[in-house]
Amino acid sequence: MTEKPDQPDDFFMSDAPEATDALADRMSDALTKSAEPSSSDAPAAEAVLEEEKVKDEIDIQIDLLKDPDWTARREAVVTLGEMGDERCVEPLVSALRDGDWQVREAVIEALGQVGSPAVERLVKMLRDWDLRKSVIRALGKIKDERVLDPLMQQLQNDEFKHDATEALIELGQPAVERLVGALKHKDEGVRQQAIIALGRIKDATALDPLIEMLKDPDWFSRLTAAAALEKIGDERGREAIRPLMKDPDMVVRMRIERILAAWKKNKATANA
User: Fold this and answer.
1) Residue 32 pLDDT more than 90?
2) How many other CB atoms are there within 10 angstroms of residue 213's CB atom?
3) Does residue 46 carry a pLDDT above 90?
4) CA-based max dimension of the chain
5) The predicted structure's pLDDT at residue 4
6) What is the predicted pLDDT for the residue at 265?
7) Which of 14-18, 164-168, 213-217 is the least confident region?
8) Sign, CA torsion 157/193/178/112
């Protein structure tokens, strides 16, 4: 006698309404479960949707950079900067040529917000004479060590050395080591710009190198070093500049006299 396969009884009772309904329910549940996305797939799907949304928004703002209304272009620049996406770099760099100065100013700030992803493109744009000033300013807003070499090189450029100095000052402490090194540069103009920057940054590690610069053979470098030490305001710097009261250059002597008189007055006011 042939045995039945080992199956539930209701499997063979398909003519019974109750069995048919039960089987249909089980099949429906199985199909529904297989169609539902797993919990592990949900975050990935959401991430894709969010990326597409951001991409669409970037495209919208890029299109607005061509708007005839400068205020619309400026707002688009601000928004792209806030997004901070590397896809914003190229359109923002192109917007440095905008006809309205307020838009161009916003672009410099926006590139600073984008930060490191913009460095490589901005460094290449230093070749463009017309944009170099704006590019230098933008680089000064990015805390990335890759901006140091190109900015230090611009200290040798008479036309852009002041812009590079301001950019290095804005970078602040990360630029101090390179600026201290520039105090030994063969070009006295580079030495002077480095002194000015160090005095404005007011980092204590620059104190001894600046004191050493009081012995520089160039009278203007000595004068600039004294002014930098005045800005830092450390007592050691005050004592170091006193010998310059006998400097061979009259301009230096007069300047030192005023510095020491101002320090003495400020000290008396503080103790009053």
Assistant:
1) no
2) 24
3) no
4) 128
5) 47
6) 79
7) 14-18
8) negative
- pTM, whole model, 2 decimals? 0.76
The radius of gyration of the chain's CA atoms, rounded to the nearest angstrom, is: 34
Q: Inter-axis angle of helices 219-232 and 250-271, to 10 degrees? A: 10
The token pair at 162 is 């002041």
Tokens 């990360």 — which residue? Answer: 174
DSSP string for the chain: -PPPPS--GGGG-TTSHHHHHHHHHHHHHHHHHHHSPPTTHHHHHHHHHHHHHHHHHHHHHHHHTT-SSHHHHHHHHHHHHHH--GGGHHHHHHGGG-SSHHHHHHHHHHHHHH-GGGHHHHHHHTT-TTTHHHHHHHHTT---GGGHHHHHHHTT-TTTHHHHHHHHHHH-GGGHHHHHHHTT-S-HHHHHHHHHHHHHHT-GGGHHHHHHGGG-SSHHHHHHHHHHHHHH--HHHHHHHGGGGG-SSHHHHHHHHHHHHHHHHHHHHHH-
Q: Is the pLDDT of residue 232 over 60?
A: yes
pLDDT at 217 over 50: yes
Both structure tokens of 59: 């495209």
Summarised one tens digit per residue, pLDDT across range 53-98 is 556 889 999 999 999 999 999 999 999 999 999 999 999 999 999 9
CA dist list (Å): 15 to 19, 22, 23, 181, 226: 8, 12, 12, 95, 106
Q: Are 64 and 75 in contact (CB under 8 A)?
A: yes
In terms of phi and psi (left: phi > 0; alpha: psi -120 to 50; beta: otherwise), the region of 142 is beta
Q: How many CA atoms lie within 13 A of 105 on its CB side?
A: 5
Q: Please compute the mean of the pLDDT values over residues 116-140 and round it to a whole number.
A: 97
